[in-house]
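Allow me, if you will, to draw on your knowledge of protein folds for a short while. The matter concerns a single protein, recorded as an amino acid sequence and a row of backbone structure tokens. Could you please explain, in whatever detail you think fit, how the structure tokens follow from the sequence? I remain grateful for any guidance, and I place the record below:

…
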Amino acid sequence: MDRRPIRGRPTRGVAAVLAAGALAAGAVLFGTTTAYADTLFTDTFDDGDATGWAKSGGSWSVVTDGSPAYRQSGTSSDARALAGQSTWTDYAVQARVKPTAYAAANRHVGVIARAQSSSSYYALVATAGGGVQLVRRSGGDPVVLGSAAGGVVVGTWSTLKLEAVGSSLRGYLNGALVVQATDSAFAAGRAGLATSYASATFDDVAVATASGAPPTGTPTGGPTPTPSLPPTEPPTDPGKPIGFASVNALGQNGTTGGAGGPTVTVDTAAELLTAIATPGPLTVKVSGMIALPGPMHDVSSDKTIVGVGASSGVTGGGFNVGLPVSNVTSPPADAVHNVIIRNLNFRNTPDDAINVQMFSHHVWIDHNDLSAGYDGLIDIKRGSSYVTVSWNHTHHHTKNMLLGHDDSNAAQDTGYLRVTYHHNWFDRTPQRNPRVRFGDPVHVFNNYYVYNTDAGVACQLNSGCVVEGNYFEDVEVPWTVSYSGSRGRMVARNNVLVGTSEPGDAGGTVTEPSTFYPYQLTDPASVKAVVTAGAGTGKIGF
């Protein structure tokens, strides 16, 4: 087998990694186990074209969909795009896939392995009904070799991986083995992408040689991860936060939101605003996009606000978690606390999308998609603390996340603003990723930064930040302790830099986050794949 890497014009970041020898390409894309020996092909489409792809049917083009991606926009035919060599035998092909439309109920989109031609191949596909199938196509209609429930949602990114090793075929969805079959029709062939009377967008395509016995156990639709790719979330209960929101402090035992109270489903602004202001524990399920009268609306203590599916949320207004602004310098007895905000889309907010203020504590902001606001997307200020911001996708916005709002607010903020930021996707958000004043310690780990043109983590005004295990790609200044002339303290370790020669400045001592809570790092080389597959809405079970 020819194992020379093939790329459709690699991005500057990928080329920099290879040239520096900092990370093996196989480790970046497929984890660090011996299951994958060599990377054969990668394409992120960041160069703006699709060099190396042979197209058949459909209408293929490179578009911007959060980042550059490869889209097939027609729904009136079968369409394939193939790459690589016909001599490839045992390998895995992986891609992020977002279905956008199906012409009929029996149509699909997915990834191809061992393609003999544009009409003879194996494929792992997501169906119009949200399931997944292993199929063999030999010139006619696809033959289903195996199927499973999947939960792939139109308009939402999922990661599909198809392994072909000998006669064994194994299909993975978001890192979990969900379907497998045995078939010997095709021994070798190219990799590719497929749509059958459907449209879809594809990104982060990778092919690597595979070897070894299949994993033990029966494939299911549950969270069992493939041993060769990291799971989409670290091994923790997805219904509970890690980080500072999990800490017992200020009279609150972790963050549980509306647990123990009733659940209501809302689909109008009046219903939503009434629910979030209701005293006592309450889970508020938001159905659809709700237009709020703006700008900010108060959330009371002991609330879980969660979106239904991938497309629910709010537009035209945001949430304020906190009491009205005052000059008090210690937490008042009625400070807002124990609030969870998950799985919501925030759009077109005339102020902040989420504002946490006035000594609010134990707040968990998780798996949201936030963009196109006026001020901050997630701002935390005025003595608030014990907050976790996790698995959010922020994009199409400039002033992203502020921690501490003003240089003159030391009296309220010193000793507070303890926040954890993990597994967030800072997607072309120029600044405040976050910008930190006074907070100590602030833990920033396992986030994916891409094309932030001002700064990644800015730690100033005697704040203390631990920045570890993050993946910085084409970031002008990944981290700094001297932003706007006022210095902070920072420990920066085990971060991946791609397309960046100067990381910025760090120094000083910071209290270790492990003093407060346990946590497990995702392999930094895998953070890009893990975060882009797992961050945002539609990734948790609501």
